[in-house]
Amino acid sequence: MKKAFLYITGVAFLLSALAFAADKPLSPATAAGQVKANPVRIAKMNATGKVIEISDKAIKIERTVKNNVETMQFVLDKPTENIAVNDAVKIAYVEKDGNLLASRVAKIIPKKAGEKETFPGKAAPVKK
User: Fold this and answer.
1) Cys staple from 74: which of 57, 88, 102, 109, with CB 3.0 to 4.6 Å?
2) Distance of alpha carbon 22 from its chain centroid, rounded?
3) Residue 28, H or E segment
């Protein structure tokens, strides 16, 4: 009798464990809510060239890539300052709705060949 009672109790625990371990199916509404959405990353690109035309809404540059000269036109989200025609510029842009949208326009200032960089607070070396 004791053996039968142990077998029945063991089977009851086994069946209850299986019942708790069973995976409950989710409704479509909760399953859709749990899906992790991966945000679409927009590629940020750079272009360096010489300004051909500039206005408050657009800028057009000419750049050389592998000995080929190409013209690129960018849409400006805000007007640029201190940039004129024939200036060398570096433009950070993204492609949006088939247009090239410039997020940053920076003027390139060339370094002089004979000028050495000096650090503030340090004296320049004296030649004897």
Assistant:
1) 102
2) 43
3) helix 28-34
The residue among 44 and 126 whose pLDDT is bigger is: 44
Strand (E) or helix (H) holding 47: strand 45-54
Alpha carbon distance 19, 69 (integer Å): 71
Tokens of 128: 């004897």
Which fold, 45-107?
Answer: OB fold (Dihydrolipoamide Acetyltransferase, E2P) (2.40.50)
Please tell me what DSSP assigns to residue 98.
T
Q: What is the rounded CA–CA span in Å between residue 61 and residue 59? A: 7
Amino acid symbol at 4: A
